[in-house]
Amino acid sequence: KANKLHRIFAYGSNMHLGDLGRWMHEHGFQAPGVESVIPALLEDHRLGWNYASRARGAGAANPIPSPGRQFPGVILEIDERTFAAIDHKEGHPHRYCRGEIQESVTLFTGESILAWVYRVIKDHLKEEPIWPSKAYLQLMIEAAREYELPQWYQEELVKHPQSDPPPKRASSTLSIREISKAWWQSCGKAVGAGIGGRGVNS
Question: Closest Cα partner for 12 from 56, 78, 54, 77?
């Protein structure tokens, strides 16, 4: 029996299959089972940065309703295990949630098809913009070029604001307590966030 395929609308780091594969490998999943990648548009939405990703240490993309606008991304046709892995990665339904109903997404041909769309839940939305890291934005730029998303969108990503790197300490000496705290903030949270089925999000 053929494995059932699911369609998701990817718009952030999930567009970058190399990064998705890295995450799945690091979290004990097999390589992504992606049947096809199809450029598409989420109508009446725009790219938003109103979510602070624990894993990225900066902002992560989120679709924001915006009448008349278009939000480019790609539809991933994926197998059952990859679908489950992405649910875990996005922290569904505790951080990002895809709801229970697929949404209409427009292909570049003008055809509309249904796909799952992950959105940040209300409890985790921020009022002020949380800009992405340079590395996260670069994943989106590379994917946008790879799948030939609209030129205007590629240019928007290239010019997009980025989060500032954390300031360096003036002192070169750290106590054991400070070293332990620094390790937990940079590594421990990323590891611990995967415990309990809430994912580490994108």
Answer: 56
Res. 31: pLDDT tops 60? yes
* Secondary-structure percent of the chain, ordered helix, strand, coil, rounded to 5: 30, 25, 40
Instruction: Confirm if 123 and 54 have CB atoms less than 8 A apart.
Output: no
Closest CA to 34 of 146, 167, 180, 129: 146
In whole angstroms, what is the distance from residue 189 CA to residue 183 CA? 9
CA 169 to chain CA mean position, Å: 30
**pLDDT of 62-106, one tens digit each?**
999 999 999 999 999 999 999 999 999 999 999 999 999 999 999
How far is 45 from 54, CA to CA, in rounded Å? Answer: 24
- Cα distance between residue 63 and residue 202, in whole Å: 14
Bridge-partner residues for 100, per DSSP?
none
CA separation, residue 121 to residues 97, 145, 202 (Å): 6, 29, 14
Residue bearing the bigger pLDDT, 119 or 55: 119
Q: Exposure pattern of 131-150 as b/e (b: 16+ CB <10 Å)?
A: bbbeebbbbbbebbeebebe
